[in-house]
């Protein structure tokens, strides 16, 4: 995902969490990044992470939501987001809001979980997300057990409602073109990118 951002770009990283993508954008693309997330605890950890990585001068972290961005139109050269769409009520409107703050000709790129298309890989993915992940989470804590129980069904439900062809159409409807994607991890993850018209 980071490789789709132009060198030296001003980037908005939506759902930045602990700023992992923002840090990589600075390190690998010499970007200037504004990271936004609605979770204050994640942002605090992000501030610590950017300091430890010694990139805090190039990253500004703000509290906010992807559904209602506090920026004027065409404010950014690129927009990135990670694991966001399953958590918003209206993915199409949220995508349009992110495109609103992207300058014409700018790139948007996303990293998301995906459901593998290959039957064998899908069976292994199901076993991992429905059985192994919750069991591993239980060994760590009650909170991680709940995350493990939630994740697989959440991903499946999202792709049942928004299969990949529908997502590509959603990106077109938002004013994006040159849409590309690359599946990773035997189809368990996907990077999607496009350019604003």
Q: Can you offer a commentary on this structure?
A:
The protein has about 200 residues and is α/β, with parallel strands linked by helices. It is about 45% helix and about 25% strand. A seven-stranded mixed β-sheet has the order 3-2-1-4-5-7-6, sandwiched between helices. β1, α1 and β2 form a beta-alpha-beta unit. The mean pLDDT is about 95.
Shape: globular
Overall pLDDT metric = 94
Structural class, judged by helices and strands?
alpha/beta
The H/E string reads EHEHEEHEHHHEE
- CA-based gyration radius: 17 Å
Which stretches of 5+ consecutive residues score pLDDT under 50?
A: none
User: What is the strand content?
Assistant: 25-35%
Task: Please report the number of helical segments.
Answer: 6
- Tell me about the largest β-sheet: 7 strands, mixed
Helix content: 40-55%
Number of strands: 7
Q: Measure the end-to-end span.
A: 20 Å
